[in-house]
Amino acid sequence: MAPSSIGRYTIIRPLGAGGMADVYLARDPQLNREVALKMPALERPSPDALARFRVEARAVARLEHAAIVPLYEYGDHAGRPFLVMRYMHGGSLADRIDQRRATLAEAVAVVDQIAAALDYAHAQGVIHRDVKPGNILFDDAGAAYLTDFGIARMIDAGGGKSLTQTGLIVGTVAYMSPEQALGRPNLDGRVDIYSLGVVLYEMLTGDIPYQADSQLQQAMLHVNAPIPSIRERRRDLPPGIQAVIERALAKEPAQRYAGGAALAADLRRAAAGQAIARAPQPAKEQSRGFPMWLMIAAVAVVAVVLGMMALGNDRQPPATPASASARSSASADRVTPAGGGAVVEQPSPANEPTEELQSIAVETGPTSTAVPAPGETATPRPSPDAPTPDAPTPTAPPPTIAADTEPEALTIGRTDRGTPVEAVRFGDGAATVFFIGGLHAGFAPATVALARQAVDYFTDYPERIPAGVTLYIVISASPDTSPAVGELAGRLNSNGVDANRNWDCSWAEDARWRNQLIPGSGGPAPFSEPEVRALADLIVAEEAAAVVFWEALAENGLSSPGNCGVRTNVSGPLATLYGTAAGYEIGDFEQETGQLLNGDASNWLDSIGIPAIAVLLPGYETIDLAANLAGMLAVLEANGR
């Protein structure tokens, strides 16, 4: 029987119940709003259940993202903890799939939003491990949100013990990655990418890719069955969709998309009819399947797991309006645990807790502002032996000449006016580096001039590009800006949008510039501007190892790491490397200047795990080529090793 109140919250009705937790629709009398309230199901929950509940509270509390259901409060009532979250009036993706399959445009929109949420969570050290339609909710406007971090795995900066034991298998079998099904240790965010791939397949076809008479058989299909053809089910889909599905559902994590942004970018391209590269294939001498001894062991493991699937009821329904029909009975050939996910222990030799994934070292770091524009190119090209200020003395052998350094001119996209966004590519190495000028071409013309000088330099001296590097130099990322040096007009494109306020980190339609709100400068939505979308898609598709945006202005030069939150995730070392070589200051732009940024490029890239920095030149029209050449060479050498 549902309680009449929990804490200050008045209970309206149950939303769902499971073996692990109950969820209620409640009203907050203080704020006069409906909320979803979740608490452990048993009056005397086990220590393990309480620990998992605390994990969810900690996980959601550290995640502040536009596509993650926010946590309002974590409290205690009569000795039982509870969570209070936003109530999502739009229902779940599971409800929508039960009604009809999604259009391609609808699927692209959902994947865009959930992929961004997953990348952000992974960057914060949280792996969801139970991505499925029932855990994707919608608000009144139809925006998708990720919820239910009840079995999330957290990677703490200080390390720590896992709540799971060696071989513990968690998740929902229908959406479970092969490595989850096999109980492999040290899972990473690619398990969530696999699950999102299953969700994508189900959205477009109405069915999960692997159907079986039992959960054991279904788990083994994830491990060893061929990836089904989605176009046999939906012949109206563009051919590239199959390539996206194949890479998302690759059996081995190394052959999958590294992050959600890469998956979303490929899906957008495939939806537009563009060709998509197939997933990287294993070496020919490797078997595409699993060895027989491993299959036998896997069957034994999963049999233990599924024999204990009663614990699957530990997974509770999400905070959403009650569905008209039970998801578990919507289709007889879908095999899913009655309560959702499974949390089952696989025996281990010592049955000792395992260490969590290795800790992630994060440095406090910066953000960026604006920059770029066309400009003078009269500065003489330096020779590769010319002295550069504060350039570090090389301690490693000179880089090997790249196998393919012949420059290739590219058009990576076009603006709404049809103006091309031009770039030059050098080399064909495994590590991709981007140097980008002209993010605000009319505002800081030195950034475009610097990009042109860099193209000239590496065309003349291709031996300075290591063989292990592919280098992209983008001349002017926002070529339609007006020539207005140091003024707001020089930052805005033909739609009145600032190209460095149109990315999906703290985005706002009325974005800040110098702590003033500029109406419409963020665009109607993140990545609304085609030049921004084209650049973001290219960076993500190339899985960039380093991205440098040239901007302005900082009197002594500034190397500022991307930072979409409290601290930088992966960009600190890049900022230190470039800043030290260039002789520039190293620090967070927002902290250094007291300015708050919306929709910043380097901040967004850092949030999805791509090292990115903003290098602020000492003047709007000051190229400072020698210093920046030292920074460029340091970045190339570091990534070419």
Automatic annotation (TrEMBL):
The GO annotation for biological process reads: proteolysis
Task: Kindly state which keywords UniProt assigns to this record, in alphabetical order.
Answer: ATP-binding, Kinase, Membrane, Nucleotide-binding, Serine/threonine-protein kinase, Transferase, Transmembrane, Transmembrane helix
Q: Where is the composition biased (Low complexity)?
A: 322-332
The record's listing under CDD domains reads: Peptidase_M14_like (cd00596), STKc_PknB_like (cd14014)
The highest taxon in the source lineage is: Bacteria
Q: What is its EC number?
A: 2.7.11.1
Question: Transmembrane residues, as ranges?
Answer: 290-311
Chain segments carrying region Disordered: 316-404
List residues binding ATP: 38
Please list the residue ranges that the record marks as compositionally biased, kind Pro residues: 381-400
Query: Could you tell me which PANTHER family the record lists for this protein?
Result: MITOGEN-ACTIVATED PROTEIN KINASE KINASE KINASE 20-RELATED, SERINE_THREONINE-PROTEIN KINASE NEKL-3
Q: Would you tell me the protein name for this molecule?
A: non-specific serine/threonine protein kinase
User: Per the UniProt entry, what species is this protein from, by scientific name?
Assistant: Candidatus Promineifilum breve
